[in-house]
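Practice record 12: protein with adenosine monophosphate.
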Amino acid sequence: MNKKTIKDVNVKGKKCLVRVDFNVPMEDGIITDLTRINGAIPTIKYLSEHGAKVILCSHMGRPKGEFNMKYTLEPVARKLAELLGKNVAFAKDAIGEDSKAKVAVLKDGEILLLENLRFYIGEEKNDKEFCEKLAAHCEIYVNDAFGTAHRAHASTAGIVQYGFVKDAVAGFLIGKELDIIGGAMENAKRPFVAVLGGAKVSDKIGVISNLIEKVDIIIVGGAMAYTFLKAQGEEIGDSRFEADKLDLANELLAKAKSKNVKVLLPVDNMAADKFAADANAKVFEGNIDVGWMGLDIGPKTIKLFSDAIKDAKTVIWNGPMGVFEMEKFATGTKAIAKAMAESNAVTIIGGGDSASAVTQLGYADKMTHISTGGGASLEFMEGLVLPGIDCLNDK
Ligand code: AMP
């Protein structure tokens, strides 16, 4: 990575504003998944142990610019304190009197978490005045929120872009994400296989197009596959597809062919007679009858995809193979997770649904890397500039 990290600056005695991703899932005030908090801990510990005054900030949920205690970060401060075995102070605002007062008394090594940034409309709007107030808390800006690095919000890029903070560096989590995903994109051990699934081709055109330049095999599952199959003249029954993306699907297939990249599409599908968990399900090899919709890949496809994964040296995966939220149609997604867990390849899960599937199935520690950013990792794999990284000081 060509960006400076916290190791490249002297943080001792400095007020460091650290943008973390504490957008954790909560049910009735209880945090149900600690992945994101755990992901930020190495940076927080390093800064605290090196005598920085650590001021953490994050968004949570979509409170749309208003104070809404449903989205308070206070439970996260308590959980973080428990995980660190160290006091974590909490400010009831992000740019108001309470945060100013608490920042002012912060001693070297101490940690403060500010209230949800998205309680302010200026955060997502990247408002200059909001940036200035937020920047007034600190001398050094640290970005460690990979999950929002693809957004140009006040706390993810604006405070540096407007010039309110000069020293801007990456934390360890962002460093790790870039090293692992970037390393695979640039110097993958081959065969390099990309597994793409999920709902829409339109969301993933950029990533498919860029991956064609890098990988040996692209595996396509999920609803996305039906746009490709239909474009190839197959009958897909009532399966979900994008009528306005058929030409594009063929263009992508032609591009892949011209680059000698193999595209594996489903050869059979688990179809349902309605979009429901209790639907009747039936496997179709080849064409799917009208009245049936493909909601998962079929057993032959599972074998085809799993074999390609077995032979790979690098595998990246983004997007489920079917409607994995319904038990009956989760088989394909589970099988891909299992094939990746059992392979000796470098395995990278690109966040989002695939990350939750892998974690729920208990395969998390079998993967080389599970990205903390679904959208961010997709945009990174697409070769796009991420504003939250671009704004940081070059080495
Ligand atoms: P994405 O956000 O693009 O990764 O898409 C994830 C969503 O795609 C999940 O909610 C899946 O239920 C959905 N999905 C995957 N396969 C299918 C399918 N064959 N038909 C309809 N939806 C699907």
